[in-house]
């Protein structure tokens, strides 16, 4: 294969902490990121009223996909808006992590993945002496809903091709397509912020959403179809890049990193989760692989292995 694969699992070297506000709840929340042993996967621990509840970061735990990706029961214990954090986990290649959180929503911070990247960088990322397993897509899997669609296709690498199409001329039709590695994620994706429309604000507030949203953490398109943030856009196609960031966070709930290409048109959290479920429900569409011993001057080869215990199809 002509792309770089990391042979071994990773975790953080030390603890990191972030404090912020939930974009939908408007409530303050603190998140602690703790190193974890190999084969732990990504585990959230919610402390609420003296009690602790554990959520694995798996698509099988997704309880809602309205405006964000939520783990758990929307009417009970849950953790919302996990996608930006999980995009950083995916983008930087963190396999094992315990995430302590004291509220039901991951803080929005600046609306991008940058604060999580900086926290992980400060803590450091270390390799563990256990092989990393990958989900390798071996045949196309596609879902459609009206004009929208999403699909996984075999590919020698990890690639996203995300196209969006909005009526607003401030966004219009945009495409972001790229192979993914930590350097590309930091440079081209991590800084892209979540976005919304001023015309939707009152409706969202009335429904109990976006109570913590502001120009400090969201790109806002005004009634005149212009971005009203004083600093403007961070990328010319920041909207498509943020949708790519969201897709990375949603697909990080696979239980293992994937080798393949994910493509979507007019997608979102619901379609991302549905496509991932469709892939994992078809055992003929993927295989679990890890690298074999490398020989000097040659790329690693892959061999089929057993699935990780924390993978959603094992639960």
How does the SSE layout of this entry go?
Blueprint: E1 8-12, E2 16-21, E3 28-34, E4 42-48, E5 51-56, E6 62-64, E7 70-72, E8 78-79, H1 83-92, E9 97-101, H2 114-123, E10 125-131, E11 134-137, E12 141-145, E13 148-153, E14 158-165, E15 173-179, H3 182-189, E16 195-197, H4 201-206, E17 219-221, H5 238-251, E18 257-265, H6 269-281, E19 286-291, E20 302-304
Parallel strand pairs: 4-9, 11-18, 14-18, 16-17
Antiparallel strand pairs: 1-10, 2-3, 3-9, 4-5, 6-7, 7-8, 11-19, 12-13, 13-18, 14-15, 19-20
Main attributes?
315 residues, five-stranded mixed beta sheet, UDP-acyl_GlcNac_deAcase, lipid biosynthesis
Helix content: 10-25%
Strand residue content: 25-35%
**Any low-confidence stretches, pLDDT <50, length ≥5?**
none
Structural class by SSE content: alpha+beta
Largest sheet: 8 strands, mixed
> What is the terminal separation in angstroms?
31 Å
Shape: globular
Query: What's the alpha carbon Rg, rounded to whole Å?
Result: 19 Å
Oligomer: single chain
Tally of DSSP helical segments: 6
- Nearest-integer average pLDDT: 91
Number of strands: 20
- The ordered H/E elements are EEEEEEEEHEHEEEEEEHEHEHEHEE
